[in-house]
């Protein structure tokens, strides 16, 4: 059962415990995602050096792997961090930025899915379709448009279900409507605002926030659902007082910081989906 009460309970847990969330992320969003984690109440560490991955895994509460800017050294660091996190029972979140756009991105994600076995994967529709095509044999039409999606989120629900079942994980498809599934159960989250895609790094921010929620909730489905709900609600709150993308970015951070249970209660639009594999 996911509702305003359960969402708020996890927000309180984050604010009370300030979980340390390790982010291996791209140059474009480091500052943005670190500030989002601080605003919700978590504590970010942005580290990439291979030599410190094992030590960090022993002290962090979640690991977010974002492949936005790849290099051979970073790929090995991601693999090492992921394996160390799994050894310490630390939840791992994978953000397959641009999967499907190049072979390097798709192959890197497929390898991380197999070797690291992340508990949660969050991507846009095109990224999830590309991963399902590469690892589950599904046929997808079109290609990823850079790091943006060329598909609506609903078009990737079956692909998300296949990925979740194949790798025993939770898959999030983000878009105008967000979908979350563990292969059997699912959630449809209708919060958000059209101004959000105009701000660089909103998808990466969603993955970082999922890391914070996974740090305090052992249910991957609930953690991902709660994080995406908060992301959407805060997006609506920020957009209501923003003039454009610049003020939207600042107001979004403030919305995370000032979020209260009344905001969630008034705005939350989340629908449980049964028999996700049978959804059209």
UniProtKB/TrEMBL annotation:
Its cofactor is Mg(2+). One of its GO terms (biological process) is thiamine biosynthetic process. Its EC number is 2.7.1.50. Signal peptide: none annotated. InterPro entries: Hyethyz_kinase, Ribokinase-like. It is an enzyme of class 2 (transferase). Catalyzes the phosphorylation of the hydroxyl group of 4-methyl-5-beta-hydroxyethylthiazole (THZ). This is Hydroxyethylthiazole kinase. It comes from Alkalidesulfovibrio alkalitolerans DSM 16529.
